[in-house]
Amino acid sequence: MKRASAARTGLTAVAVLAMLTVSGCREDDTGLPDPDASPSGQVSESASPTPSAEQSGPRTLVDAPRAGGLDKLTGDQALTDAPVDPGEMRDGMTLVIGNYGDPGGQSAPVLLEGVDHVPEDTGKRREHLFRGVIEYIQWDPELGQPEAQPVEPGPLGGSVECLLASLSEEGDVICGWADEGTAAVALFEDSTLADAGKLFVEMRGDLER
């Protein structure tokens, strides 16, 4: 899938942004669709997270230097801003973003963006992030709406879903998790649902505490 140059520049910035805590970013300023809607229009009610047995309270996100075996990229491969609107940020919330991958640049980096201490339904916040990534990759809605598929969430529980924005069996895969207090998404270029889902769950284990 080809993208406009503006989409690519968000992945090749010159400064390092490890962690942002911002406020005043409101979803109603984004021009995105109704936040109650699913990015695919077909996600079941199970998309809302169910806390796992291991859950002992709201978790936090950390600025992990390595996640799922991938390094957080720095220098000209780092991010300078949030390429996807995270939704409304309130006091006590943290925004974590970054490119993760091979510092040698042998493959496209994985763009990750997440928030913690979300005061509302984290499933809805994840849907907001999903829609933002779909817009970021400039998916043509005339090609149809990608359908989110459930993924085994692993030991952290909650709900994990991935969707394939491609007409073939591989391409851009967007994965997202939502649990009691956090929501995050990641973009995997040139991947499959199975591979991206597995890696996303592994990355989550290093990013959420």
Description:
This is Lipoprotein. Residues 39-58 have a biased composition (Polar residues). Residues 25-90 are annotated as: Disordered. The protein is an alpha+beta fold and 209 residues long. 17% of the residues lie in helices and 22% in strands. It has 3 helices and 9 strands. It has helices at residues 5-9, 122-136, 193-207, and strands spanning 19-20, 66-67, 70-72, 95-101, 110-115, 149-151, 159-165, 171-178, 183-191. Strands 1, 2, 3, 4, 5, 6, 7, 8 and 9 form a 9-stranded antiparallel β-sheet that branches. The longest helix is centred in the middle third of the chain and has 15 residues, at 122-136. It is globular and about 40 Å long. Residues 1-55 have low confidence and may be disordered.
List keywords for this structure.
9-stranded antiparallel sheet; Lipoprotein; globular; alpha+beta; 3 helices
Indicate the topology.
Layout: H1 5-9, E1 19-20, E2 66-67, E3 70-72, E4 95-101, E5 110-115, H2 122-136, E6 149-151, E7 159-165, E8 171-178, E9 183-191, H3 193-207
Antiparallel strand pairs: 1-4, 2-3, 3-4, 4-5, 5-9, 6-7, 7-8, 8-9
What oligomeric state do the depicted chains represent? Answer: single chain
Describe the largest sheet.
Answer: 9 strands, antiparallel
Q: What is the average of the pLDDT values?
A: 79
Number of helices: 3
**What form results from the Cα inertia axes?**
globular
